[in-house]
Write a structure and sequence with these properties.
The structure is a single chain. With 369 residues, the chain is an alpha/beta fold. It has 11 helices and 17 strands. It has 2 domains: 213 residues, TIM Barrel (Alpha-Beta Barrel); 125 residues, Lyase, Ornithine Decarboxylase, Chain A, domain 1. Strand 7, helix 7 and strand 8 form a beta-alpha-beta unit. It is elongated, with a radius of gyration of 22 Å. The structure holds pyridoxal-5'-phosphate. Pyridoxal-5'-phosphate binds next to loops.
């Protein structure tokens, strides 16, 4: 049997027990609020992880690429939301999936896109200035809906994503972001209904707001993706603890620079990604927190810097901890800053037997667009 000592490093280790715990936590919360989950598969991009999320039911999912839509459709998923604004050139692939019986719904926020679409769509609403979308009270919302129906499309409803919740600080701000996300989405759906559109779908969500919502009246579904793995950004804003993180990158020590207090590894940003999402948080975790092979963090040891295929481990600035004795050839695990970005650097997961160093399976990831 393979163990964490065997595969060539760097590689991605996945703890399915933690995924299961993370999934149960969000499902329990959403069940209490009486709202359906439409998991975003962009984080794991894995049929095997999706099966942990929905117990094999192949229920509704959100995707971020048509490659994900095609892979999940081929595996039997039939209710798919493509939650990135539609480029008209991609409509051929959308129609091909719809012709095969997949209810693939697209996202748009302009009259131009609506006029080209000819397929069911959600209209993207901007709730916090994070990215695209139209304001809930903007009359263009109804213009978009009319353009969509005029060209044979169908107004399924509205979608908003509180992306700024990633920068929230503390429970109160997180609860406020969730409350605002809901209120904006419901207001936009009401505007469409007042103009004569059924707009049955009111889709909200991000991992922070999904967890901190206290009332989802009027919302039909919650999209969250990161919640399956969590990461140091999520721990930094208080959505999870380090013990919830399901992913780590296993790397090998390849040298030392005692003069600088560095331990060098074979895992650079190609293995962890260049994401520095904790750089704006109160506690910066640089490129990741370093753990031993059993997953216990070393005192104050960070992956402090990265080049393409080199990682530099060093103590957190100001730390009085002692640099651990890690000889050349020793392996350590790096907890990711941003799980979606770290996982995207790899083509598979090495699946851990929880509580041991044994690896029980390899799960492939969907790649490309
Ligand atoms: C449109 C949309 N919905 C949902 C999500 C899921 O958010 P999270 O990864 O915080 O769970 C994302 C993530 O970027 C998104 O872009």
């Amino acid at each position: 049997m393979s163990t964490l000592e065997h595969p060539e490093t760097p590689f991605l280790a996945l703890d399915p027990h933690r995924v299961d715990t993370n999934v149960r936590r969000l499902r329990r919360h959403l069940d209490r609020l009486g709202v359906a989950l439409r998991p975003h598969v962009k984080t794991a991009k894995s049929l095997d992880v999706a099966a942990l999320v929905d117990g094999g039911a192949k229920g509704p999912i959100t995707v971020s690429t048509l490659a994900e839509a095609e892979a999940f459709a081929a595996a039997g998923y039939r209710d798919i939301l493509y939650a990135v604004g539609i480029a008209p050139q991609k409509l051929g692939r959308v129609r091909a999936l719809r012709d095969r019986g997949v209810d693939l719904v697209v996202l748009l926020d302009s009259v131009e896109q609506a006029s080209a679409a000819g397929v069911p769509a959600l209209i993207e609403i901007d709730c916090d200035g994070h990215r695209g979308g139209v304001a809930a009270g903007d009359p263009v919302l109804v213009d978009i809906a009319r353009a969509l129906e005029h060209r044979g499309g169908e107004v399924r409803g509205v979608l908003t994503h509180a992306g700024e919740s990633y920068f929230a600080d503390g429970d109160e701000q997180l609860r406020a972001a969730a409350q605002h996300e809901r209120a904006v989405a419901v207001r936009a759906a009401q505007a469409l209904r007042a103009a004569g559109f059924a707009a049955p779908m009111v889709s909200v969500g991000s991992t922070p707001t999904a967890h901190f919502a206290t009332d989802l009246t009027g919302v039909s579904e919650v999209r969250a993706g990161n919640f399956v793995f969590f990461d140091l950004v999520m721990a930094g804003i208080g959505v999870c603890t380090h013990a919830d993180l399901a992913l780590s990158v296993v790397v090998t020590v390849i040298g030392h620079r005692p003069d600088k207090g560095w331990i060098m590894t074979d895992g650079g940003w190609m293995a962890t990604s260049r994401d520095r999402g904790t750089g704006r948080q109160r506690v910066d975790q640089a490129y990741g927190l370093v753990c031993d092979l059993d997953g216990t963090p070393y005192d104050d040891l960070l992956m402090a810097d990265a080049s393409q295929e080199h990682g530099i481990l060093a103590l957190r600035p100001g730390s009085t901890a002692k640099l651990p004795d890690l000889p050349v050839g020793a392996r350590v695990r790096i907890l990711p800053i941003h799980a979606c970005a770290t996982a995207a650097q790899h083509d598979r997961y090495h699946v851990l037997d929880p509580g041991s160093r044994a690896l029980t399976a390899e799960w492939p990831r969907v790649r490309g667009w």
